[in-house]
Structures are given as C-alpha cells and as structure tokens.
Design a protein that fits this description.
two-stranded antiparallel sheet; 37% helix; globular; mainly alpha
C-alpha cells in the first residue's frame, strides 16, 4: 500500500500491521486519504483483516470515514464477504447503513 509515512499517530505495531509498513518505519498516518478517498482502514477492512482493522480503530483511525463514493470501511468489508470483520467493526461503532 502506498501510504505516505510520517508523524500523525504513534502506534505500537503488531505483527499483522507490520505488513503495511516498511520494516524500518514505526509511524503511520492513520488519516491518510488516497486520490479515491480511501484510508488504511478501508484497505484493511476490504481485505478482511479483522485484527488489523481493530488495531487501527483502537489507535485512532476514523471508523466512520467515507471515500468519494460515500462508502465506509464496513461497506468494503461486507462487499468482500468478510463477516467477522463486519461484526467487529459494528461492535466498534461502525454504521451499518
């Protein structure tokens, strides 16, 4: 994922989350938005990475962020058939609508 890395949020990265970050980095912008309005949480949810999605939300990622098509991370998770991720995001406060 081509996320710009810099100081916005300092998080302790678990092994799952490390796959998104180059080995020599420890900081990640949780609010980075790409040209389509997608965030790291959108990507994580779309891939069904439940543990990563939880860690991102617990670290301050906006669970209700919308892309340019008004889709939130839970929409991408549901669209991919990732039931466990959908349930966890809902428990963490994601809007199911």
């Amino acid at each position: 994922m081509g996320c710009t890395l810099c100081i916005n949020a300092v998080i302790e990265l678990g092994e799952e989350l490390r796959s998104f970050v180059p080995p020599n980095k420890q900081l990640v912008i949780l609010s980075h938005i790409d040209k389509n309005g997608l965030t790291l949480l959108h990507a994580s949810a779309a891939g069904g990475h439940t543990g990563i999605s939880i860690k991102l939300v617990e670290s301050g990622a906006n669970i209700k962020c919308e892309d340019y098509w008004k889709k939130t991370p839970i929409h991408y998770s549901a669209g991919g058939g990732h039931t466990e991720t959908v349930i966890k995001l809902a428990e963490l406060g994601a809007n199911i609508d």
